[in-house]
Amino acid sequence: MSGKLAIVAAGGTGGHMFPAQALSEALIGRGWRVVLATDERGAFYADKFPAQERLALSAATAKANDPVGMVKAGVAVFQGVMQARQAFARLNPSVVVGFGGYPALPALLAALLEKRPTVIHEQNAVLGRVNRFLAPYVTEVACAFPTLQMAKPAVKARAHVVGSPVRPEIRDLAQVAYLPPEVQLRILVTGGSQGARLLSELVPEAIAKLPEEMRGRMKVFQQARAESMEHARKIYRNAMVDCEVAPFFRDMAGRLRQSHIVVGRAGSSTCCELAVAGRPSILVPLKIAADDHQRFNAKLLEEAGGAAVCLEDELTVDALAGALNALLKSPERLARMAKGARSVAVPDAAEHLADLVERTAR
């Protein structure tokens, strides 16, 4: 089969998988073949992933204070490296691209052992643990945010700021003008792949406290945990709010296109998609996120005037209701926020990263 082949290693969360998918689509458009190396959690987000093949590599992680878990994780990663090397002997990839997270580790380690060209991409404003470990050894380092926290000076000096690749349907929203609300008020509530319980339970209660006139012309699209869905629907029903509640929206681009404001976590994909789509937001960084990276992610949008940031420790039903009320009754402010969000967007991040991958492979 003709064409160069790239191994794209990602998994665990949508924050890793969505940029990996966007890069893969860009590479395929240039005549490349793509094989995805992932884990079981990553497979949940890979239903539309355009890989010709998927490699299920053994991988695991453990807390530093769990010596037994560390040994088990080490054994799992070693097995994954051996599996990857066996696959490489058959596929002979021209380059291996990792998107962070422990599922990407075996493929990158195998590539380094075989001295194959390697690229890592960091989606967050803080260099993650796996990428932090790999960064001094890989061929090239790419990142989404110019403020690459936790990176050593030598790594930061050679990092390529390319933005975070977004899916084509999200990128298309960069050409869609933001129209402030006139009659209907449309709110999108996302939870991210982790820590969604707080928003699942708190947002409906906050919306129920909004003025009746506002609730009467509101449409809410809310991602919620399965165990929280019926409770959320009940609150909305009692508050006379039109809603659609689901555990996951496959058509996120369609929801973003319709929304006037987004309430969500501050994962890298969320922040970069909000910027490209030019949508105002209220962001609640996940408190337990490693190295507080979601707070640093949110800072970019906040400083650009595109987002209001509420820390978990300060978030109450009344505080969120007040923030929503203030924004929804001010179309002019929402329009300014939309403009601010779009000012930091990098819609062509997938192409920029694909350029780097091709240069590295050569």
CATH architecture descriptor of the largest domain = 3-Layer(aba) Sandwich
Q: Distance N terminus to C terminus?
A: 19 Å
* CATH level 3 topology of the largest domain: Rossmann fold
Mean pLDDT: 91
What is the CA-based Rg, rounded? Answer: 21 Å
Number of beta strands: 13
Q: How many DSSP H or I helices?
A: 16
**Major beta sheet, strand line-up:** 3-2-1-4-5-6-7
Structural class: alpha/beta
Percent in helix: 40-55%
Overall CATH class of the largest domain: Alpha Beta
- Report the β-strand fraction as a percent range: 15-25%
The helix/strand order is EHEHEHEHEHEHEHEHHEHEHEHEHEHHH
Overall 3D form: globular
Biggest sheet details: 7 strands, parallel
CATH fourth-tier homologous superfamily of the largest domain = Glycogen Phosphorylase B
Would you identify the regions where 5 or more consecutive residues have pLDDT less than 50? none
Total discrete domains: 2
Main location: membrane
Enzyme class: transferase
Keywords: Cell cycle, Cell division, Cell membrane, Cell shape, Cell wall biogenesis/degradation, Glycosyltransferase, Membrane, Peptidoglycan synthesis, Transferase
Protein name: UDP-N-acetylglucosamine--N-acetylmuramyl-(pentapeptide) pyrophosphoryl-undecaprenol N-acetylglucosamine transferase
